[in-house]
Amino acid sequence: MHNKTAQLAAAVSAITLGLTVTGQAMAADNYRLSTLEPGSSSYMIMSTFAQMVNSDEDLDVNIQVNATGAATQHALEAGIGDIDFFMWSASVHDSMKQGINMYAPIPHAQERSENVRGVMAFPQGFYHFITDADSGIESLEDLAGHRVFLGPPGGGATVVMRQTIEAATGLVANEDYEAVNLGWNAATQAYQDGRLDVYINPTLPPSPTIEQFALSREIRLLGLTEEQMEKPEMVSIVNRPGGVTGTIDPDDYGENVVNQEPVLTLGSISGIGTGKHLSADEVYAITKSFWEQAEEQRERTPWLRHVRLETAIEHLNLPLHPGAERYYREVGLEIPDELVAQD
């Protein structure tokens, strides 16, 4: 009886140990990625990134996507290892490093900024200013007295758009026009329901969200003028970390766009960041998996043409994760000294 009891105890112990080891192995292969809500370029790119890596049969990886909250909060969470991947933004990271703008009331923001690393950069997109063709709004000066979605509360896009409209037109948010506080999903629905006069989204053309708007109504793309772009305040915004300019071709969205010419607008560079708590081997394998599949995916996914290996480290203002750095050196990219992590 004693022997049977001992054998049973040993068997239970072995099973328990096996389950523990298996659980640890599974946990090691599970990663948490946070991004913006569906409808944004960041969501499209980062969810595709996760899907591609998860589908790699050579890896036993499961990247779980959380598409809620603001990128500003996600960066803080990555800085203490609560999440593994997040949407990096050059302008947001600059504010985090300095403890300014949305990070001014957060005393630990600067400390946490030292704990995040870069994986890759990509264009977040060009700011699409969308209004109904019959709204009577034909320029940014016409925003006075209207309901405008600049971006989610506390988000980097919101800061950039508030500053842009004021610099270009002198109109001040919540004094000259109503800045409506909504998340990306809620704002998309609000515009479709007619509860917003102007909807702004930094997204890559052709954006599925904007395409959906243009299916049901005639819309107008608002833009900036050359004169507005030359104002000193606008020059500062364009020259912010990750700032770019570009044009949106109305042909990207079909005949329901009433513009006859491309519109001039601003853009932002974003990317995928990670925490320095992940090992070099982990990040190397994930980075390699994504880029090796990207070319094939690009043929089926038009907006993915904007995500290029040759520009993967441009505009980064945080050190590369050593695992990502290893991959980029392997494929021949030249790594500037300032992007090499010192720990």
TrEMBL record:
<feature type="signal peptide">
    <location>
        <begin position="1"/>
        <end position="27"/>
    </location>
</feature>
<protein>
    <submittedName>
        <fullName>C4-dicarboxylate ABC transporter substrate-binding protein</fullName>
    </submittedName>
</protein>
<dbReference type="InterPro" id="IPR011852">
    <property type="entry name" value="TRAP_TAXI"/>
</dbReference>
<keyword id="KW-0732">Signal</keyword>
<dbReference type="Pfam" id="PF16868">
    <property type="entry name" value="NMT1_3"/>
</dbReference>
